[in-house]
Write a structure and sequence with these properties.
Layout lengths: L1 E3 L2 H4 L3 H10 L2 E3 L1 H21 L5 H4 L2 H4 L1 H38 L3 H28 L12 H7 L3 H8 L3 H17 L4 H33 L2
Parallel strand pairs: 1-2
Length: 224
C-alpha cells in the first residue's frame, strides 16, 4: 500500500490517515513536504523579522547606531531569523523522529510524517500570534495561548517566563497527537510512550527557554 503525504487533508481525518500510514508499505511525497515546510518556516520567520517582531532590543539602539548602521543591523537580523527558522524546522522534523525511532522502531519516514504535522501546527500557532504581536504588542512568551503570561505574574525571572511561555494550548494538542500516532503504530506500552513524549517536550521547553534567554542577552550585548 502506498501512502502519499497530503498534509492539509491530514487534519480532516486524522484517525483515518494514521491508520493508512500504519498499513503503508511505501511512502510518497515525504521529502517534498519536508522541503516545503522548511521553506515555509524560513519565510514566516523572515517575514516576522521584517515586521520588526522580536527586534525591540535592536530598535532601542536606533539613535546610537545611526540610520545606515540600523538598516544594516535590521537586514542581518532578518537573515539571522531566517537561518534560525531553517535550523528550527530541520531540527523539529528529523531529531525527534530519530529519537522516537530508537524507542519504537517505527519506520523513520513515518515518524517524519508525524513531525511534519507537528511543525505545521506550530507554524499555524506562530501565524496566529503575529496579530497579537503587531496590534497588542505581546511577546510570544506572554501570548494568551501560553502559560508565560501567568508565570510573568508569579516571577520576574526571565528564563522561567520563557520556559512557561513555550507551553501552549497547541503543545497539548501536539502531545495528544504524538501519543495517538505512536500508540497506533507501535507496540510500546502506553505509560512508556507518555513518559518519553512528556520528557521530550519538557526538554524542548527547557531548550526554548534557554535559547530565548541567550538570544535576548546576545542581541542586547551585540547592539550595546
Amino acid at each position: 500500500m502506498l501512502y502519499r503525504v497530503q498534509l492539509f487533508k491530514f487534519f480532516t481525518s486524522i484517525y483515518d490517515h494514521i491508520f493508512r500510514i500504519r498499513q503503508a508499505e511505501k511512502l510518497s511525497n515525504v521529502r517534498k513536504t519536508s522541503t516545503l515546510l522548511i521553506l515555509a518556516t524560513i519565510i514566516i520567520y523572515g517575514w516576522m523579522a521584517y515586521l520588526g517582531i522580536g527586534s525591540s532590543i535592536l530598535s532601542g539602539g536606533v539613535a546610537e547606531l545611526g540610520a545606515m548602521k540600523y538598516e544594516t543591523s535590521k537586514l542581518w537580523f532578518v537573515i539571522g531569523r531566517m537561518i534560525y527558522g531553517a535550523l528550527f524546522a530541520a531540527f523539529l522534523l528529523f531529531i525527534p523522529s530519530l529519537i522516537f525511532y530508537l524507542i519504537t522502531e517505527i519506520p523513520y519516514g513515518k515518524l517524519v510524517i508525524m513531525q511534519q504535522v507537528v511543525l505545521a501546527v506550530m507554524l499555524i500557532e506562530r501565524l496566529l500570534w503575529i496579530p497579537l504581536a503587531l496590534f497588542a504588542g505581546l511577546d510570544w512568551f506572554v501570548s494568551p495561548l501560553s502559560f508565560g503570561i501567568i508565570a510573568s505574574y508569579i516571577t520576574e525571572i526571565d528564563w522561567f517566563i520563557y520556559f512557561f511561555g513555550a507551553i501552549t494550548l497547541f503543545q497539548f494538542w501536539i502531545i495528544w497527537f504524538q501519543y495517538r500516532f505512536l500508540h497506533t503504530l507501535s507496540e510500546v506500552g502506553s505509560r512508556t510512550l507518555w513518559a518519553f513524549i512528556l520528557l521530550l517536550h519538557v526538554l524542548g521547553w527547557v531548550l526554548a527557554g534557554t535559547i530565548a534567554f541567550a538570544d535576548s542577552y546576545m542581541i542586547g550585548r551585540w547592539f550595546e
